[in-house]
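re: ur question from yesterday

yeah so i grabbed the chain u mentioned. its 208 aa long if i counted rite. heres the sequnce exactly as i have it in my notes:
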Amino acid sequence: MRKTSPLLLGSLAAALIAAAPAMAQSKGDWTLGIGAHQVDPKSDNGSLVGGTLPVRIASNIQPTFTAEYFIADNLGIEVLAATPFKHDISISGLGKVGSTKHLPPVISLQYHFNTQSALSPFVGVGVNYTTFFSTDTTGALAGSDLDLDDSWGLALHAGYDYAIGKRGALRMDVRWADIDTKAKLDGQKIGTVNIDPFVYGVAYVIKF
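ran it thru and got these structure tokens back, copy pasting raw so excuse formatting
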């Protein structure tokens, strides 16, 4: 059997991408997206009680939704929403001590590069607001009242859209959010938890 040249395969793939329709974004356009994202907190989430109790926040995946309005050609304002993320809270040496839910809506200003091809990268910067609720305690902290303050912070966004027809696109993206929350145990301040997650996702986006 004759082997296909890798160079030929690469050329064919490039030709298919170039031939695929681009999903152009013009002033006044709207896009809606539905997908799923994983909130992956950084590995070092800080320490509580004077630096004596290292904290770890587990990752979680939830459905997400976006809406973006283009205020100019290729320049849009996007709002990200999601169903509540739930994270287990662990302390080194004590194991799991609780869990919390949060909603992290983000509003971003985004620029979409007009590549005239099916593959369209974009970058964005915005503001994240995170509110925590349904915080429970277990294990070593069972019966205690753990409270996490809401957080405001910077949010960064980058990714690309691969056009599927003139109105649809498959999106892969990554976000970073500055999320720091002050923790209280039975009303007493015990320190700050630095979550600062990367958020990885995939979505289907449609233009109106």
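noticed a couple things. The mean pLDDT is 88. also The first helix runs from residue 6 to 19.
anyway ttyl
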